[in-house]
Write a structure and sequence with these properties.
The protein is an alpha/beta fold and 248 residues long. The chain has helices at residues 2-11, 19-23, 42-62, 81-93, 148-159, 174-180, 201-214, 219-230, 234-246; strands spanning 28-29, 36-39, 72-77, 103-114, 117-126, 136-140, 143-144, 164-172, 184-188, 193-196. Strands 3, 4, 5, 6, 7, 8 and 9 form a 7-stranded mixed sheet that branches. A 3-stranded mixed sheet has the order 1-2-10.
């Protein structure tokens, strides 16, 4: 039943999205893989970000004329780029006229080499792009996995002179909630779930197909896993799978 609900939601039209399902979704298992995979459709991400923005609007209302009101937002690249751009529309263009604007910037950090493969510690790839000294900063990322990146960046903001650092992500996992829970988030997933956001469908395919191939999966079996099980668009799989599978 859960699998049926997942496939209905992955392929449904925007007006049929059940956000209650997406608040606590479980990914799909595939043979010979320890991870579960959760494909987030574009329309689901947009709807989830709108709800996340509502939480932040409420916070801004509650902190009028306070130093804790958010005045800066840093998009954490790469994961935070899509939610960050969507949040910009809500928080800058959609703010109330009497709420000060938020200046957006970026910070580059990397934790993952690929699905399930982590660096020993977060790597700063490029520094803070806007002044944050004395400001309340909102860090925007896609998810909290083990909590290490949020914990690291929160401390990094404070060490860089921020008055306060807050975190906004699309999804939280149990380990991250325990270690460094985001201040604003839309939903929760089990720890073993690999979340495939719209910005990383090709990346996940490119990095996971060789793993499946090494474990004996044929090209047709990889296609079945991507399309029939996980819910990938057929056109995307047909565009990339043959070349990726043929790589030595």
């Amino acid at each position: 039943m859960l699998t049926d609900n997942y496939h209905r939601q992955v392929s449904c039209t925007a007006d049929a999205i059940d956000l209650n399902f997406w608040r606590q979704p479980e990914g799909i298992t595939v043979p010979d893989d320890e991870l579960r995979f959760l494909l987030i459709p574009d329309a689901v991400e947009s709807a989830a970000i709108a709800e996340l923005a509502g939480q932040i609007h409420q916070y801004q209302d509650q902190h009028r004329d306070s130093r804790d009101q958010i005045t800066r937002a840093l998009i954490v690249t790469m994961g935070g780029m899509l939610p960050g751009v969507l949040l910009y529309d809500h928080l800058v263009e959609g703010r109330k006229p009497d709420i000060p604007g938020i200046e957006f910037g970026t910070i580059g950090v990397s934790l993952y080499k690929g699905p399930g493969e982590r660096y020993d510690k977060p790597l700063i790839q490029h520094g803070i792009s806007i002044p944050i000294s004395g400001e309340t900063v909102l860090l925007v990322d896609d998810l909290g996995d083990l909590g290490g990146t949020m914990e690291f960046l929160t401390q990094y903001m404070q060490d860089s002179g921020a008055h306060k650092a807050l975190n906004a992500v699309l999804y939280m996992k149990p380990a991250a909630k325990k270690r460094c829970c985001a201040d604003f988030y839309f939903g929760e997933t089990p720890q073993d779930t690999w979340i495939i956001t719209p910005r990383e469908r090709v990346e996940t395919l490119v990095k996971r197909v060789p793993f499946w191939k090494e474990h004996g999966a044929s090209q047709e079996e990889c296609r079945r896993r991507l399309v029939d099980l996980i819910g990938y668009p057929v056109a995307l799989v047909e565009q990339y799978l043959p070349e990726v599978y043929a790589r030595p």
